[in-house]
TrEMBL record:
<feature type="domain" description="Schlafen AlbA-2">
    <location>
        <begin position="19"/>
        <end position="139"/>
    </location>
</feature>
<feature type="domain" description="Filamentation induced by cAMP protein Fic-like C-terminal">
    <location>
        <begin position="424"/>
        <end position="473"/>
    </location>
</feature>
<dbReference type="InterPro" id="IPR049514">
    <property type="entry name" value="Fic-like_C"/>
</dbReference>
<dbReference type="Pfam" id="PF21247">
    <property type="entry name" value="Fic-like_C"/>
</dbReference>
<dbReference type="InterPro" id="IPR038475">
    <property type="entry name" value="RecG_C_sf"/>
</dbReference>
<protein>
    <submittedName>
        <fullName>DNA binding domain-containing protein</fullName>
    </submittedName>
</protein>
<dbReference type="Pfam" id="PF04326">
    <property type="entry name" value="SLFN_AlbA_2"/>
</dbReference>
<dbReference type="InterPro" id="IPR007421">
    <property type="entry name" value="Schlafen_AlbA_2_dom"/>
</dbReference>
<dbReference type="InterPro" id="IPR038461">
    <property type="entry name" value="Schlafen_AlbA_2_dom_sf"/>
</dbReference>
<dbReference type="Pfam" id="PF13749">
    <property type="entry name" value="HATPase_c_4"/>
</dbReference>
Amino acid sequence: MLAEELIDLVKQIHQLKTETQTIEVKSAHQGCPKRLYDTLSSFSNQDGGGILLFGISEEDGFVPTGVYDAHDLQKKVTEQCNQMIPPVRAIFTTVEWEEKVICSAEIPSIDLIQRPCYYAGAGKYKGSYVRVGDVDLPMTDYEIYSYEAFRKHVHDDERLIDRADLSYLNKEELESYILQMKKDRPGFSKLSEEQIYEMLSIAHNGTPTLAALLNFGIYPQGFLPQLAIIGVVVPGTDIGDLSEDGVRFLDNKRMEGTLSDMLEEALLFCRRNMRVSTRIEAKTGKRIDTTEYPINAIREALFNALIHRDYSSYTEGTPIQVNFFINRLEIHSPGGLYGRMTVEELERARPDLRNPVLATMSEFLLKTENRYSGIPTIYREMKEYGLPKPVFENRRNEFVVTLYNQKKKEQDLGEEQSIVEFCKEPKSRQEIADFLGIKTISYAMKNFIQPLLDTNELKMTIPEKPKSRLQKYYVEN
């Protein structure tokens, strides 16, 4: 980076008094920190990488301490970078600020097919780290497996379910599917039944695949008990909230069967637990019922969860979750986004397919087209309903879709837009309340700041400590 950019970054960290997802500070005034491996790994393993800032003391309130020797520091940091697999190529910048020498090391993100980056001395399973807020955490076995599965093109929907055999599949539905596949494919029609089962990834040597069991199984959960959908209705805004008479869940249902069965049952569950408003069209006198959330948006979100969730042995004990709250609907899908896809690209990019066999079967069995139109449909349906934009979150080991049911008043929309403009530079709760002319910080938090956080229009400088007195809010560029 340029010297001017480094000075601006140092000033920002000094003002915020916190590390971030992409910034780690080290004092380094008495020597080079001896163990940078965790941060080198976590920064290398996240999109965008990160920056190590040497010469800033976190313990003393993020004041400049300077580095002991910029030349020797860069040499020793490079030695640690070379002990990573693959080696890390840091880019150094040195400046003088408040009569102290500050040094930065930009750690670039490595390509997805090379991840995880880890410390050679600890090995892959103990030396791989992920950045969460301002903390470096050891990667789980599942997170490491996810990288390897993408690199090696492992598709868990094709894995064999050893305890099952073809007698556990619905023969009529299977034959109907195969007949559909034979249409307009003269060569394919000449294959034997066993060859067809192999070609369509239905079975290998008489043992069905996970995809076949989930789509044609008579009772798939007999072999895969947690590959189901759990639906709950909460009488509040958080899990654990109780109703006035002490009830934790207003409705609670487990949905099983094939993917088609689960999709249908989940939609029925959602319909049953949504408020419905009715209006009479003035010209025709026709009654029009409008559900709390657009059904098409819910269907697409559920479909995506069923088809694109992680089906590896690491997550087969985790069901899909449908959680109704008084202000929103959340759909939790096990496993984060697959491959190179990011949340920002969801609406416009063609994703890598985690489960290609399930996706192909779904075109026939779930009466849908594999055209990658699900996310745009959710955006469009929510907009037509006059509801806030859907929120997509790629959390650690799960993907979450959130739909909000509250239509915003024009006055609130104007005030929220002004907050967004105001927070181009990080602002505290008090600063935002003062800006709005609101005396009660809790009111400003509940009615203005939190809704913008919920829709990802505002970000927190300390996301892992949401109630910190040092917390500030900003708009991500």
